[in-house]
Amino acid sequence: SDYIKNNDISVAPLDINVDGESLPLDISNEEVENLIFDGRNVKTACPSPAIFQELYEKALKEGAEHILVFTISKTLSGTYNSAIIARKNLDDDIKNSKIKIIDTAQVSYGSSYLVIKTIEMLKKDMSLDDIYKSINNMIPRGKFYFVVNDLKTIKKNGRLNLLKYIVAKAL
Q1: β-bridge partners, 45
Q2: Alpha carbon of 124 to those of 58, 121, 131, 134: distances in Å?
Q3: Fewer Cβ in 10 A, N or C end of the chain?
Q4: What is the mean pLDDT of the chain?
Q5: Nearest CA among 78, 104, 87 for reference residue 15
Q6: What is the layout of strands, in order, in the sheet containing 15-18?
Q7: pLDDT at residue 28, rounded to an integer
């Protein structure tokens, strides 16, 4: 999007697989929803540590003094762990001082909100430490709610065990 380009944001995309085939990264949410409703086997995979490392190295090579990494909730995805592993692969002086990884404890709009707030604070010339503290104070106040039309997909992808699935279906 324009916001991403205009604010010099890099994105490590999730991999979307349908029936074992990787989909293009520019697929819309609506297209993915339609595939799910059609009964296709849709799964996502977190970005690999190599993707994060490539993004870190590119940003540093382009002169970034610091890198803030916002990941979706580590309870829902391995994205946070991939970002951590990639940072561990860098030189000690870089990984310990230049890269801060933030688990937003959110997905989608919740994560985006924190990025937008960070950009606003950066434009006000707030210090990185103050921004980091402010964002970490916002995270526990965020809430994540979602509604599903059908529990089958959640069960099929391992997010809901059989007993909970049976009880939920009965309700």
Answers
A1: 15
A2: 25, 5, 10, 13
A3: C
A4: 86
A5: 78
A6: 21-22, 15-18, 42-45
A7: 81
At 119 the three-state DSSP class reads: helix
* pLDDT at residue 74 greater than cutoff 90: yes
Residue type, 109: Y
Whether 27 contacts 16, CB under 8 Å: yes
Q: Using alpha carbons only, how large is the chain's radius of gyration in Å?
A: 18
Q: What is the mean pLDDT of residues 37-65?
A: 90
CB 130 within 8 A of CB 121: yes
- Would you state the pLDDT for residue 135? 94
The C-alpha atoms of residue 154 and residue 132 are separated, in whole angstroms, by 33
| Tokens at 134, concatenated | 């402010």
* pLDDT for 24: 75
The tally of CA atoms less than 13 A away on the side-chain side of residue 50 is 0
Spatial distance between the Cα atoms of 51 and 11, rounded to a whole number of angstroms:
10
This prediction has a pTM of 0.79
For 1-15, letters b (16+ CB in 10 Å) and e give eeeeeeeeeeebeee
The pLDDT of residue 85 is above 90: yes
Determine the distance from the C-alpha atom of residue 62 to the mean position of all C-alpha atoms in its chain, rounded to a whole number: 23
